[in-house]
Amino acid sequence: MYLHEYQSKQYFARFGIQTPPGKIAETEQEAFNAAAEFGVPVVVNAQALDHQRVFRLASTPDQARAIAADILAMTISGVRVGTVLIEPAVAVSAEYFLGIYGDRGSSWLMIASPEGGRDIIEIEREHPQTLCRETIKPFLGVLEFQARNLASGLNLPREQWNAFTQIAQNLYRCAVACDAIRAEINPLSFTANGDLIALGGKLVIDDNALFRQTELASIRDVKAEPQSVVAARAAGISYVHLSGTIGCVVSGAGLGMATLDMLARHNAAGSSLLDLGGDIQRDKISAALRLILPEAQSVLFNIFADKTSCIEVARELLAAFSTIQAALPLVIRLAGRDAEAGRAALEAANLPLLSTAATTYEAVEAVSKGGGHVDFSG
Prior knowledge:
The chain has helices spanning 5-14, 28-38, 61-72, 120-126, 144-153, 161-177, 214-218, 227-235, 253-265, 282-292, 310-321, 339-348, 360-368; strands spanning 23-25, 42-46, 55-58, 75-76, 79-80, 84-88, 92-103, 107-113, 132-136, 180-191, 196-198, 201-205, 238-241, 246-250, 270-275, 298-305, 327-336, 355-357, 372-375. It has three domains: 21-88, ATP-grasp fold, A domain (Dna Ligase, domain 1); 92-218, D-amino Acid Aminotransferase, Chain A, domain 1, CATH 3.30.470.20; 227-375, Succinyl-CoA synthetase domains (Rossmann fold). By secondary structure, the protein is an alpha+beta fold.
């Protein structure tokens, strides 16, 4: 679960990380009022869950109102901006990046860079030599020597090392307490007074921990999420939007990654990846197809049946197809128990040019060449 920047910084403040005072505004008049209260200049910052940075400096309350009106009319990553954050402008002399991430291999990984204000992916791509890393053991937390290693790598003045150490340790504490899988301060900035302050922030919460993070679950902004993501969550489907043309429906995350990798080797790419998990039922299949259809030119089902028979999976697939009014190329790979019988059941349905496959390679090769054209409309 993604938090808005203002929500992330509210949690940072709870753990002793200094952040600017701020007010959220959902209308241009609220932005005017906040700017008048703070005095000027102020920063008007769009709040989008993908944390794409869109902000402008306003020198008067009237200017803040006009900027807020412009930003609230924007669409970012397919979602209309519903909230802006108004904060007093802060004069800074340097900006840094500090983030901590859940890592299956090392438990936690803390990364710092002097290239603050940039996304971590951009930093790693364009300035990898600036990245400083420390592996954090969960039973020890951020040790002082580790924070000082990062501070040294950032070329921070030595008199700021203690302050930086406290921020690094508090960021770790915040991530653990919130069950975050990603926590970033970006930028972490030097003010004119020589203080370190979190001007930007990002928290991403582990969805699997929301059952115990009731407060965080209660502030989820569903309106700011793409409707496809909301619909997938309601159907119990893991959904990832991609930029290709082939809708991929799989029965497991590992199988999904292998499918996308193999598509790439065939110079093809997924438009979306939907993971049904082990519960391959017609309602979930129908929901997956409804999510895929607006953005895909063809569909690949890559199903490994381990909890049920492929014959039953084939029945569920055909029942789902009967509820969908659409026509598009379709390739189905079935593997697992009774796989041959399951594929035979699909072929016996006589859907026009339906392609079946026994292996992922065969399925990817077929769909990358256009697959079969299946008219679901009957």
